[in-house]
Design goal:
There is one protein chain. The chain has three domains: 80 residues, Ribosomal Protein S5, domain 2 (2-Layer Sandwich); 41 residues, no CATH class; 136 residues, Up-down Bundle (Butyryl-CoA Dehydrogenase, subunit A, domain 3). It is built from nine helices and six strands; from the N terminus they run βββαββααβαααααα. Helix 1 links the parallel strand 3 and strand 4. Helix 4 packs antiparallel against helix 7 and helix 8 runs antiparallel to helix 9. The strands form two sheets. A four-stranded mixed sheet has the order 1-2-4-3. Strands 5-6 form a two-stranded antiparallel sheet. It has 278 residues and is of the alpha+beta class.
Length: 278
């Protein structure tokens, strides 16, 4: 969701930046005459974007000026006050025109001129959002390829774990026999087999591996879809991480434990990238 968009003409310039965020948060920086456009501009951004912290700044283009006009009624009132003050004080002299123009309300925006700038702001904002969206799509294509590569790696590591644990009961039996021999103890075969069965049951991770395969398949379906999938991928990577944690906790074979750590690393990489996806 990190991207930059820009658009403008001879009247206004827009700059839009977006960074990662769980939800859509839009911040608009507008000059005073444009404040009434805020809701309409928010609606435009929300129609194209779903997630991200979006900062949009509107500036007048270089050399562009919203030329004000004289408020005749206010100007006449101010002149009347000045003339009244002269009479009361018995003074005469010239009046500083610039000072009069600075009086609140004497100068006001020309509605026709302001409307022209507002229309330019609305049109350019749509183009700036489109530019931002294009940048996001370009980054999204790269992230799509990266996530698919990581999903393939997760499948590969999970398959390796599945192959290892298929002989787990035999490995547990051999390890217990070896331990008994090292201790020089005498253990009934039936009792030893019961312990093997109990440990094999506790360390059975096929259910976790099956769920991991399901999550990987669902992640691929999300990437193949047309709708925004960032939040869904974020949730799926959390679920994958939960299965990897269980695999690591239940693994009794050193190689399986190592592969479970590899899975956690891959899933964590995917989760970080999922934060960048709308």
């Amino acid at each position: 969701m990190t991207a930059f968009g820009r658009a403008g003409d001879d009247l206004v310039d827009w700059e839009i930046r977006s960074v990662n965020h769980r939800y859509l948060e839009i911040s608009l920086r507008l000059p005073e005459p444009f404040r009434d456009l805020e809701q309409a501009l928010r609606d435009v951004a929300a129609s194209r974007l779903r997630r991200g912290k979006v900062d949009a700044t509107l500036r007048l283009a270089r050399q562009a000026t919203i030329v004000p006009r004289l408020n005749d009624d206010a100007f006449a009132e101010v002149l009347g006050v000045v003339d009244d003050a002269r009479r009361r004080l018995g003074q005469s002299g010239t009046v500083d025109a610039v000072e009069l123009l600075r009086w609140p309300g004497v100068m006001q925006d020309d509605p026709d001129n302001v409307a022209r700038f507002k229309e330019a702001a609305r049109t350019s904002f749509v183009l700036a959002v489109d530019d931002l969206f294009a940048h996001r799509n370009s980054e999204g294509a790269q992230l799509d390829a990266l996530l698919r590569e990581r999903l393939a790696d997760v499948e590969r590591v999970a398959a390796a774990v599945r192959e290892l644990v298929s002989d787990q009961a035999e490995a547990i039996r051999d390890r217990l026999h070896k331990r008994v021999q090292e201790l020089g103890a005498r253990v009934e075969i039936d009792r030893l087999e019961q312990e093997v069965a109990l440990l094999a049951q506790k360390s059975d991770v096929f259910e976790e591996l099956d769920r991991l395969d399901i999550h990987v398949a669902e992640a691929r379906r999300s990437l193949d879809g047309e709708e925004p999938c960032g939040r869904r991928l974020d949730f799926l990577t959390q679920e994958m991480n939960r299965e990897a944690n269980t695999l690591a906790a239940k693994s009794v074979l050193p190689d399986a434990a190592r592969l479970a750590v590899d899975l956690k690393v891959l899933i964590d990489q995917m989760r970080e990238q999922a934060q960048n996806i709308e």
